[in-house]
Design goal:
single chain; about 525 residues; alpha+beta; OB fold (Dihydrolipoamide Acetyltransferase, E2P); 5 domains; five-stranded mixed barrel; 8 helices
Length: about 525
């Protein structure tokens, strides 16, 4: 970030514009950290903003001539460079905002590139060499990349730039699953296909779990890799895989440079579905990736959000309720709301502290004659709002799975444009206990008297999504409400909310102290 700030200040000084470094840093941080704008684009936006502030039209301002660099000379973000490089490898984009992504290389090394869809640049071909003009460098977690945007240019070269293929540029080592400790490594792996999942994108051919005797790991086989389909339960030698990491979890990707060879000898895989499966109660589910049996009643069926999902909703027993997903290709008969079943060989999953179970090809359902008792699902609670939690206000969700994006990134589907949503996550206190609640967009709009479009306008004008959360806190904190709705995990999903009596002076003082404890 410091290098980008210095770059902005230098460009402004070239136009005889002096701006405090703190103002530049503050505005740059808002764009990059709050709105998820790529650093190169953010640099250009900040420069243009301050030029306009000083009466200089950005259209008359041209950045200084880009530096001509080798890949190995790239040592910081926010630099505008020219680069002669070969397209070593093309990967599948994880977002419609990305036109192409992959690896570029020259004799000094390789580097990741991203070509934005709106850049309107020609399609690159793997193996061809190009002059990349006015590309901007970027950095994430100590690794550099280059971005191609509207100001960039691409010219095909008649000469071939010497660049080692990734498989040759570094030693490809055969590893065990448990030995995978870093991303970006090219490895060979002898593993068994433990489980196949339904792909969540057309760019993915197959995905699921592979494993050996040391553990299991998620894999993704890209649709354009040209690799034959894998069979569940079969063992393979996976050659030239690349490791990846997101939020501390590793995975492996199969692309055009990868290879798959069937093995005659079966690889022993730990925690495979065919292993020991334990029958559990819902309240006993405490980790993801476990294969379990479950006796439960279908409490509620929801509308599937994707064609890959056959059914989804809530199942429950006397200890609680949990979300379930039945994949379309699982070929399992449809479940009926209100009926009880023995769910065999389902796999647990977790997101943001909430567990769910998935039904796939290896799962089985058996109707039960006896009805499973489900703990009461409706709850009422009256108390004062003592905390508005992180993730409240104006948020963006992944358009595929509807999870909340973190700085423009979905934990399952990578970088996404996202769709806006409005919600409140709050804590109510009645003086004896606390209760967490989730209030959806419709009820948030009604409660706050503001539409989502108005919230978006408010955030854009302030250049800060948190302004919406601040408004919610100002209006709700310390006020009494009665809420009712179904309970899921530790939350009441609010279907009705209405003001309750105001707090007495003594209650207000006590609640103020308790709010401090919660926060």
């Amino acid at each position: 970030m410091n290098a980008a700030v210095e770059q902005i200040l230098a460009r402004l000084r070239n136009q005889k514009v002096e701006v405090p470094a703190s103002e530049v840093e503050s505005r740059l941080a808002l764009l990059v950290e709050k709105f998820g704008v790529p650093e190169g684009e953010a640099v250009r936006s900040v420069v243009n903003y301050f030029l306009k502030e000083h009466g200089i039209s950005p259209t008359t301002f041209a950045p200084k001539k880009a530096e001509i660099l080798k890949v190995g000379e790239i040592d910081g973000p926010g630099r505008w460079i020219d680069l002669e490089a070969k397209v070593v490898e093309l990967w599948e984009p994880t977002s419609s905002a990305i036109s192409q992504t992959g690896l570029l290389g020259d004799e000094t090394g390789t580097i990741k590139f991203v070509k934005w869809t709106k850049a309107d640049l020609p399609e690159l071909e793997a193996g061809k060499s190009y002059l990349f003009k006015n590309a901007v460098t970027d950095e994430f977690q100590g690794k550099f990349s280059v971005k191609l945007n509207r100001t960039s240019g691409v010219e095909e070269l008649t000469k071939v730039v010497a660049a080692a293929e990734p498989s040759a540029s570094s030693q490809v080592q055969e590893m065990k699953v448990s030995e995978i400790k870093e991303e970006g490594r090219w490895i060979d792996l002898r593993a068994k296909v433990v489980q196949l999942w339904e792909p969540t994108s057309e760019t993915i051919s197959q995905t699921g779990l592979i494993g050996d005797e040391t553990g299991t790991i998620k894999f993704v086989k890209w649709a354009k890799s040209g690799i034959p389909d894998l069979a569940e339960g079969k063992s393979y030698l996976f050659k030239n895989l690349v490791t990846d990491e997101f939020q501390g979890r590793f995975s492996v990707k199969l692309n055009r440079t990868s290879g798959v060879e069937p093995l005659e000898a079966e690889v022993e895989a730990s925690d495979a579905p065919g292993g020991q499966v334990q029958e559990m109660k819902i309240s006993q589910i405490g980790e993801e990736g476990r294969w379990i049996d479950l006796r439960a009643k279908v409490v509620q069926l929801w509308d599937p959000t994707s064609e890959t999902i056959s059914q989804t909703g809530l199942i429950g027993d006397e200890t609680g309720v949990i979300k379930f997903v039945k994949w379309a290709k699982s070929e399992i008969p449809d479940l009926a709301e209100g009926k009880s079943y023995l769910f065999k060989n389902v796999v647990t999953d977790e997101f943001e502290g909430r567990f769910s179970v998935k039904l796939n090809r290896t799962s089985e359902i058996l109707p039960l004659e006896e009805e499973v008792e489900v703990s009461p699902q409706e709850a009422n609670f009256t108390g004062a709002i003592v905390d508005v939690q992180k993730g409240s206000g104006l948020i963006k969700r992944c358009p595929i799975c509807r999870r909340m994006l973190n700085k423009g990134v979905c934990g399952e589907h990578g970088k996404q444009e996202g769709t806006y949503d409005l919600r409140i996550k709050a804590v109510l206190d009645d003086g004896v206990k606390v209760q967490e609640v989730l209030i959806n967009r419709e009820r948030t709009e009604s409660l706050m008297g503001i539409s989502m479009e108005e919230a978006k306008t408010m955030a854009m004008e302030a250049l800060d999504h948190e302004v919406v959360k601040g408004m919610i806190e100002e209006r709700l904190l310390g006020r009494y409400y009665t809420v009712s709705g179904p309970t899921v995990d530790r939350y009441i999903l609010v279907e009705m909310i209405s003001p309750a009596r105001p707090a007495t002076a003594e209650e207000a003082e006590d609640l103020a102290a308790r709010a401090g404890e919660v926060i």
